[in-house]
Amino acid sequence: MQIKIGELAKRTECQAETIRYYEKEGLLPQPSRSGGNYRLYGEEHIERLRFIRHCRTLDMALDDVRTLLIYRDTPDEDCGDVNTLLDEHIHAVEVRVKELMQLKRHLTVLRQKCSSAAPTESCGILRALSDCSCHV
Predict the structure, then answer these.
(1) What is the dihedral of CA 95, 99, 102, 103, to 10 degrees?
(2) Which of 28, 49, 67, 135 could staple 22 via S-S, CB 3.0–4.6 A?
(3) C-alpha to C-alpha distance for 93 and 115, rounded to whole angstroms
(4) Three-class SS of residue 51?
(5) In sequence order, which residues have a C-beta less than 8 Å from that of residue 120 and are 6 or more positions away?
(6) Can you tell me the mean pLDDT for 66-93?
(7) Closest Cα to residue 3, out of 16, 57, 27, 73?
(8) Percent of the chain clearing pLDDT 70 (strictly above)
(9) How far apart are CA 40 and CA 4, in angstroms?
């Protein structure tokens, strides 16, 4: 089976520009070309692109995806480093969750500065943003 980039994009719910970018970055192997110089993709491209997209939905950086692809392409290797990579990603997510919770607290305190509709000149939120009095 040989499909063009538009069909690959459709099947993987990925934009053609992103597919070209992944090729340029070496995440996807270069496709063969038709007589008219169209890129032609096969089943291995579909499967690999789905793997990449799944990793990206988990908010993994392209370098981490690249590393995972290397391990995926060498099935006889030990997966200890894959576990370590995922543990590091979990830790980074935990840090981000803490930062987001702090942001939520900050926004909640800020929101409490103005409890009703009023002229903007008396808006407690705008005043607090101007003088930074609402830091948590």
Answers:
(1) -160
(2) 28
(3) 33
(4) helix
(5) 126
(6) 94
(7) 16
(8) 96
(9) 5
Complete DSSP assignment for 73-119: H-TTS-SHHHHHHHHHHHHHHHHHHHHHHHHHHHHHHHHTT--S---
Other beta carbons within 10 angstroms of residue 45's beta carbon come to 23
- Position 132 confidence tier, pLDDT thresholds 50, 70, 90: low
State the amino acid at position 26 in one-letter form.
Answer: G
Using alpha carbons, select from 132, 92, 83 the residue that is nearest to residue 110: 132
Least confident of 20-34, 64-78, 121-135: 121-135
Q: Which tens digits make up the pLDDT trace of 49-64?
A: 999 999 999 999 999 9
CA–CA distances in Å: residue 124 to residues 64, 97, 103, 109: 44, 28, 18, 11
Amino acid 25: pLDDT: 94
